[in-house]
Amino acid sequence: MWRSQTLIVALAACLMAVAPAQAILNNTVTQWEAQAQQAVRSIGIQNQLSNRLYGLVALAQLHAIEKLSTLDPVIAAGGAGHAVLSILFPSNQSAEYDGLLKKQLDAATGGKALTDAQKAGLKAAAALAGDLVRNHTGGASAEYSGFKFGAPGPFVYQLAPGQKYALYPQLGNAKPFVVPQPELSAIVTNTDAAKGPVFKVPPISDYETARKLGANTTDKALGETALFWADGANTSAISGHWLDIAKRVLPSTLSVKDSALFFAKAFTGAWDASIAAWKIKYSTLHWRPVTAFRAGYTGPDGPVAADKEWTGFLTRTPPHPEYPSGHQATVGALLEALVRQLGTDKVEFSIGSEGTPFLPERKYTDLTTPAVEVGDSRLYGGVHFNTSNVDGLIVGRVVASKAWDSPFWNTKAAASAPAKASTPAAKPSAPKAGSPKPSAPKAGASPKPDAAKPAAPTDKPAATKP
Ligand SMILES: *[C@@H]1O[C@H](CO)[C@@H](O)[C@H](O)[C@H]1NC(C)=O
Ligand SMILES: *[C@@H]1O[C@H](CO)[C@@H](O)[C@H](O)[C@H]1NC(C)=O
Ligand SMILES: *[C@@H]1O[C@H](CO)[C@@H](O)[C@H](O)[C@H]1NC(C)=O
Ligand SMILES: *[C@@H]1O[C@H](CO)[C@@H](O)[C@H](O)[C@H]1NC(C)=O
Ligand SMILES: *[C@@H]1O[C@H](CO)[C@@H](O)[C@H](O)[C@H]1NC(C)=O
Ligand SMILES: *[C@@H]1O[C@H](CO)[C@@H](O)[C@H](O)[C@H]1NC(C)=O
Q1: Is the bond into 324 cis (omega within 30 degrees of 0)?
Q2: How many Å apart are CA 277 and CA 254, to the nearest integer?
Q3: Terminus-to-terminus CA distance in the chain, angstroms?
Q4: What percentage of the chain has pLDDT greater than the value 70?
Q5: Structural domain boundaries of the chain?
């Protein structure tokens, strides 16, 4: 009696502790995104370029599903996903990608041989995917930018000790998927708060917090948060981290077509937002905390002495200008897409971190909290000032909002999007006209690159994914 009661109590406790497993979206679209995530991990593709990769996979799938409307969406999306990754990562084509495609085709056909129409469909899907990949992997993003470092001085971006190159100065000129370049330029250069957010480098009043919190190696909670969202080497990047969040908060029954539409909208928006962020980065050329604190500067209360030993908690500062946060441009874009899709910010989920398998999953009841937390993690990591995180999130949301509403999606797929997705948009939170906006440091805030020292642009993967 006693034993069985104990057993029942133990069993009940067990059931309560292990909440019903979250149903995670797993279909033809996410399976190819998972292959893309693996490529990002193993090759060390940066956050921004991984946005483009995740966007290419889903957009190719969406094109194939729409254009080959008589084909089973699983076959169309399978063929397109297979083609994108086989083109970009040929070494995994036969062992990994052919195997996954075969599984998907077998599931779609019940193991039967493909009909001639299905074979032709697969070829057509591959051709569409090839066209898309060609369109988006060359162009201005591959051109030499002629970027020059400014002479060292207050507020001027410099490489951190040990760094050899600045990360893709040409990215601001890259070809967007959805929001045209002139619109991105208008967003980032806006000076009228009544028309939208005004992007200005962090005020000097941000510095003291960044100096203290960014170097604090004794506060366990701050350090864990910095590591949890760092998503550096051997991870699928912050973009992949939020891709995993999407798989947990979207209905696990989302159709293949609607999944392709969602991931295409989300990641093309995130790529376009990254372009906008890079325009700001390489026009403001704001220094990183490590450069500022080691150089010294004049703060609100007078001179602050150089601290030659100051080191951020994340010892590797990303190799590109500080303002705004690249992490947050991505997260803002993906947050906006998720809120638009779900029609709400309120959703319960938990998520772990590939980069910190030793830390437990974190639980959330909305999407904005973790998004802001990612920004704070960059402050605690010592790689950003607070305003850069706040404004990074804004630029991400604003660009993604434009991308989401673009006529680009006025297609059959867009029309069949889930009713939920068309719920009145949650407005991007930030760009309130007249909201208090920190003012920029005066002198040298936007140094023009000087003509002295050419720096070679490079796409070489860096150890730290921005
Ligand atoms: C998704 O489903 C496929 C097919 O059922 C399965 O082989 C695969 O392991 C699943 N992936 C995940 C991440 O659960
Ligand atoms: C290719 O597949 C292998 C085996 O699964 C994996 O270890 C590697 O990371 C993959 N490479 C790419 C580029 O995805
Ligand atoms: C690729 O670019 C060409 C030329 O601009 C355009 O005609 C074609 O529709 C594009 N294809 C895709 C899939 O984006
Ligand atoms: C660093 O963290 C410790 C432990 O939480 C805390 O006591 C200390 O005040 C923090 N230091 C700074 C400079 O924030
Ligand atoms: C990433 O993986 C490589 C190869 O397995 C390993 O050498 C490296 O230490 C890893 N980096 C991190 C930061 O875990
Ligand atoms: C960052 O700035 C925002 C907006 O001013 C503020 O609400 C937030 O508390 C700041 N965060 C930190 C960690 O200082």
Answers
A1: yes
A2: 31
A3: 59
A4: 83
A5: 148-422
DSSP letter for each residue of 141-187: GGS----BPPPS-TTB--PPTT----S-GGGGGSPPSSS-HHHHHHH
CATH match for 148-422 among 1.10.606.20, 3.30.70.270, 3.40.50.1980, 3.30.950.10? 1.10.606.20
Alpha-helical runs (H) found in 296-385:
326-342, 368-380
Give the SS3 label for residue 366: strand
**Max Cα separation, the chain?**
86
For 72-121, the pLDDT digits (tens) are 999 999 999 999 999 999 999 999 999 999 999 999 999 999 999 999 99
**Quick check: helix, strand or coil at residue 204?**
helix
Query: Is the minimum distance from the CB of 96 to ligand 2 under 6 angstroms?
Result: yes
212 lines ligand 4 (CB under 6 A): yes
DSSP-derived pairing of the beta strands 346-351 and 297-299? unpaired
pLDDT digits (tens, 9 = 90+) for 283-310: 999 999 999 999 999 998 999 999 999 9
User: Tokens representing 57?
Assistant: 């996979």
d(CA 227, CA 376): 11
Q: Is the CB of 223 under 6 A from ligand 4?
A: no
Instruction: Write down the pTM of the prediction.
Output: 0.86
| Mean pLDDT for all residues in the chain | 86
> Which of 93, 89, 75 minimizes the C-alpha distance to 29?
75
Q: Among residues 320, 309, 233, which one has the least CA distance to residue 280?
A: 320
What is the full DSSP assignment across 373-414? HHHHHHHHTTS--HHHHHHHHHHHHHHHHHHHT-GGG-SHHH
54-68 pLDDT per residue, tens: 999 999 999 999 999
Q: Which ligand is nearest to the CA of 60?
A: 3
Residue type at position 300: P
In residues, how long is the chain?
A: 466
Q: Would you say the CB of residue 139 lies under 6 angstroms from ligand 3?
A: no
Nearest atom in ligand 4 to the alpha carbon of residue 212 is 13
DSSP letter assigned to residue 97: I
Residue 38 token pair: 């693996």
* Cα of 52 from ligand 4 centre, angstroms: 39
